[in-house]
Specification:
alpha+beta; about 220 residues
Amino acid sequence: GIRGELERNGAWRGEARVRCRSGAEVHIEATVKFLQQSDGMRGGQLIVVHDIDARKRAENELRAALTLHRATLDSTAEGILTVNVRGGITSYNQRFLDIWRVPPDVLTTGRLESVIEWASHQLVDRGVTLRALYRAIGSDAVDAAPLRFSDGRTIEQYSRPQRLDGDIVGRVWCYRDVSDRTRADAERRKLEAQFQQVQKLESLGVLAGGIAHDF
């Protein structure tokens, strides 16, 4: 306890929540020290108290904001990755790992290169995509492009700069699996082409029938 630490070290420092005369409770940071007398003996105590209520409120608000940020990342259906201008990973969500099939331990390095090295072999056009990723860091461009995976998936990639007070401090990448939509669009185009071909054959049949009738 406080008394024991005072006896051992001659000082104690800690935080506490106290009630003021007004009835309000505030956070304080207190330092308690024994004063030394001229003969080397301990005398009274010096107690210094700081009101840290505003700091505590700010810390709680920051924790709440970070919790909301984390919950938002994890609840979205899109994979999200953010990096700073030096290529260091600042955040990501589970959906990003799922889309790129990256084990969580790969991100322990905190470097974008580690993720790219693991994930890039899945792409059909690896070289172009990697060069675009590296060029994008620190850029003010907003990009959108489809990525073709060797397993047949199509992933839409969105990228935009992250700004703080007008300065670019990083980049945000967003990935959306549109494989089903791409396959559906391809099937629709195929059916439309077949329908157009049938219409052409029917037109040719009508035309041939008209010519035969004239003869």
